[in-house]
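The methods section describes the discrete structure representation at length, but only in general terms. Each protein is reduced to its one-letter sequence and a matching series of backbone shape codes. I believe one specimen quoted in the main text would settle the matter. An entry of this sort, consisting of the sequence and the corresponding backbone structure tokens, reads as follows.
***
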Amino acid sequence: MEALRRMPLRYKFWAVNGVAFFSILLVVVVAMALEQRSVNQSRQDQARSLLLWWQGGEAALPDGPLQPMRLADAATSPVRQRLIKAAGAEPEWVNLSGLTLLDAQTPLGAWVRQQEGAGVLAVLVSGMSFQQVFVERAPVYALAVFLLMLGLLCGSQMLIRFVESYQRQLQQMAHFDSLTGLPNRALAYDRLAHALDKVTRRGGHLAVLFIDLDRFKTLNDSYGHGFGDTVLRAVAQRLQTRCRQEDTLARLGGDEFLLILEQLPAPNTASLVARSLLQLLEQPLQLEEGHELYVGASIGIALYPGDGGDAAELIRNADAAMYSAKANGRNTCAHYIPRLTEHARTRFELERSLRGALHNQELSLHFQPLMRLADGHCLGAEALLRWHSPQHGQVGPDTFIPLAEDSGQIVPIGSWVLNEACRQASAWREEGLLLETIAVNLSPIQFMQQDIVQLVARALAGSGLPAHCLELEITEGALMRHTDQAENTLNALKALGVRIAVDDFGTGYSSLAYLRRFALDKLKIDKSFMAGVPANSSDCQLVHTIIAMARSMQLTVLAEGVETPEQQGWLLAEGCDQCQGYLLGRPMAAESFAQHWQALSAVAATQGGACGQPYAGVAPPQAPLPARP
């Protein structure tokens, strides 16, 4: 049974066919034997009733023991009628010359030979041997056996083809990705293990490239999984154009691909291939209905034997290098270095802890003041997310927000931030802190959600906060990535009555022509541009240009990262509307912010509407403010 189990499928069916053939043949032989027995009995019974004695031209049934009797010309004799009457049917007559199979040594055989000499024409057959039955029935049985075997063989072949096709489908499903047709994770591990065996025996270089599409989850959540699948197929086809016959390109799942490079002439070839793939992906994808899409990727590189000794370790280290590439700005490649293993482990532990942070109430909002430069009035606050983990302590937003975006947790977390910020602002207004603005950041993934407008509407309705008090901050990159959808979403949000601000302006790649398309209210100058103000003339010129451009578009301008009175005064002279930074206060808990807001309001009131002064007694600058460059 074990040998049969291991036998190839086609051989198994031939074995089954052989057993079936001999089984059918055995059944036929047994049937023939049973028929011979039945025929013999029937013929004996017939002979007992029909054997006649010819006496004086009359036929009579024999009264004595059964024995062969001579007959006259049966065709014309009255005996025929008597035979029909006695038998109930036409009797079977056989020419004596045809009874050659009868043994001459038997009484019947000897009698037949004797009667032939006497001119007897025919005798009634009283029995047939098995040999006679077989000879007589052979054509019929042969045809039956042939038809049965033909049907069995045809059916077997059809079954073989069906089962083999089904096995191929199972193998395809088990080892290949159904969406792209590329090898899947299991087959990729197997091929990498074989490649490692070859390079160990023959020498040479081998590299593993871990490829992850940048911000693919945003695309998938925004346009639907069907559109995302189309993008993945297009990316797979494009990557295959750069693969050699000996290379293996596999899809590990989601937007992750793995490229196994065998027989490399030198280790640095892997970097050249990675950069070539990045350049290839920078070209827009031509999708259905004439759509063009730009897709970037981050690639991690692990080399054998320096970066791992087996398939699992190489892939794990290439994955760690890929995350390093993402941390370095995305759309780039990075080689594995040992410290990345610890970084990857820390990242995994942080991501696992973050999944329970919202449920365990580990997240909180801090608020940073926003000041109107013209009169020093604290007009509101920006809500900033903080995470205090029992396992990891205070985790900075620069660390956990990218984790939340990559893992998809940013959507429920962002929804909580929006609702909590609106609730807190409404509570402050009821307590007499009449904030004009509560600013909330929307991540690119959250902004591209289909239900973002409904989410904002529910937050306003649930908190009772007036819509004009809510300011949604959206990054420049999120607006420019999908301009048509962004424009429609902004128009719908504006219809609710909320205000829209472009966060970190100047760090992206937008143009004035594109910005004019959007329904915007405010530009926020990124704090990186304020670091050199007012000492650095280049930074001053850049900030001046942004302020002038915003004013030409009738947009409010807010400068982030204001830390010195000199920066505050210079911005006021340039015509900047608002500022935000450590000069006014660090992000603080809700209870502390209420007290801080009252203190800032008191300082502004004592100045009588003059230039806003920093809180906590920081004196205004005594020297003249720098002139406008």
